[in-house]
Amino acid sequence: MNILALDTATAETCGCLLSGSRTYMASLGADQRIRSTGIMPMLAELLQQAGLDWQNLDILAFSQGPGSFTGLRIAAATLAGLNAELKLPVLHMSSLAITARQTDSQGPIWILEDARAGEAFVGCYDHGEAVSADCCMCWQDIVEQLAPATFTSLATPPLPLNDWHYQPVARSRAEALADELLHASRSVSDHRHLPIYPSPAYLQLSQAERSAHAR
Fold first, then answer.
1. How far apart are alpha carbons 157 and 21 in whole angstroms?
2. What CA dihedral angle connects 126, 17, 11 and 166, to 10 degrees?
3. Residues 162-195: pLDDT tens digits?
4. What are the structural domains, with CATH classification, of the chain?
5. For the whole model, what pTM was predicted?
């Protein structure tokens, strides 16, 4: 089984290729100037390292979010463009699940990522399994409604999280993507039932949608 994955949900752009028992990883870092032009060469390089062509792929995968609107659109558009010809199943993965795998947590860990506009993308994972569904919450609601626990975040929260314990990331995004891809692919009993269209999980209204609702 050959599975090619892309993650652009955070500031970092990375890719991963699972080919049989071998794993290939790549990252463009957080340089936004090369994100739009560097993705396809990065993915092509992964295939070249494995000695594969695009036609040898069985599944495409991507980090569906939540994350930045721009990043999620880039990943979805990239896979949609590839699948216009390839027509492959698309495996969807949570970006927060990937972040959880960047830590060395030995128990439940909350992922609290700033979504701006006073909100956060929230998820809780325990050894790679979702404890609760990813959602979008107001930071103030997190402080008032959630019991303090262990958390991680790729950016500094905009308000103090008293009594919460911060768990720093200890692994690269590409490594975590590879782990989550392996886990997610094993959980699919029949990849033929996967959709062929990438569907981002925004979980948050865009600014245009906010303005429309405010009228």
1. 38
2. 20
3. 999 999 999 999 999 999 999 999 988 888 889 9
4. 2-94+172-214 (3.30.420.40), 97-166 (3.30.420)
5. 0.94
